[in-house]
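Notebook, p. 212. Picked up where the previous page left off. The plan for this session was modest: take the two constructs that came back from the sequencing core last week, fold each one, and keep the raw output in the notebook itself so nobody has to go hunting through shared drives later. Recording the first one now, exactly as returned: residue sequence, then the structure token string.
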Amino acid sequence: MAGDGDGSDSRCLNIVVYHNKVVEEDSSWIVAGWIKESLGRVLADQPMLSGRLRRTSNEDIGDELEIVSNDSGVRLIETKIPITLSHFLDHQLKETSEESEAQLVFW
């Protein structure tokens, strides 16, 4: 696996949340606020969830992964697209999933 030189793997957990507007005038700030508030509460109780994975060598067991809590936090990005989820999924069936998803996310 590729690492960044300090023994850590360059892998992470990416979660994408799709939601529709409740009403047309909705700015989606309420939903984003709920997500930020919920994430903040979870990380206050379970700070290891925002840790980073690092590969270590153990002579008895071999390579292991450990969680390093370095207070680097969680990346949260909000974006909006001018299509519905059903339209996106219909489009995705016509193309490969990698091409479609690459249009929506930066990683």
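Okay, moving on. Second construct, recorded in the same format:
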Amino acid sequence: MNSTRRPPQYLDLLLLMHRDVFASDSNESARRSWWLIVGLMLLVAFLFSLVLLVTSPQALQPLHQP
């Protein structure tokens, strides 16, 4: 594997897409949209971990039976 190859920089892409929002005078709107993105990502991560936590004992149960 080529370890010097950089993965896609999604944060850079996000900042490039929202550069005009940050440069404009609507600072509060930019902050609100940024927190909306962060909040949605945290919510998705929480729900995903909750689903994994609930389903993992059921998925591992046949392994513990003799």
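Notes on construct two before I forget. Residues 12 and 57 are 38 Å apart (CA to CA).
Flagging for discussion at group meeting.
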